[in-house]
User: Fold this.
Amino acid sequence: MHSTKDNILAYLKRSGGAGVDAVASEFGLARMTVRQHLSGLERDRLVVSREERGRTGRPHLLFTLTDEGEERFPKRYDRLADLALQEVAQLAADEIAGLEPEEKKRLLLRKMAERVYREHEPRVRDKDLKERVAIVADILRREGGFAEWRADGQKQYEIVDYNCVYRKVADSHRDVCEWHLSLLGKLLGQDARCDQFISEGADSCRFIVQAGAPREDRRD
Assistant:
């Protein structure tokens, strides 16, 4: 069972930051109680506050997660390392002969995507796009993400994930974001695009898939 502090951290994670009033309203708590919880989280260096001035009225404090706070949420560096090791072990010499370092990395990531796709393919097989979107969001949650999905009319779907399980790796290796996007496209059965990435400073990764847009097979 999650503690109140855990729930507040999760709310700040999803919202990208909030003030005392917003947190109090979300959980039905007294402002003083929220202040005490936030002060404790700030003392533990899990959140940081900064003064934010609105158009009117007095300035208020906005609380956001620190890097230490971000690390409280599930990360799957072990999963990434395991996939990489499995594929490296099976690479043939002729597959990488003459390839530049970046080309080798793209080859490895492509093979990793194929492996994860095969693992989940039975779940999405013969499903329509809406069902696939729901399944992909569930897969992201099971992997440790905070994924939600919604339909924008009948032709466009959106998957929003508030937690990057590969955050520190993705911060320095953008290829991981492209690999993740490619994998989602395979599972969805058609190309998806990402309007924003956590690795680029956004509060969430926002994936858009358009009904009827065919998937383009790529070799890079």
The two ends are 44 Å apart (CA to CA). The longest strand covers residues 47-52. The chain has a mean pLDDT of 90.
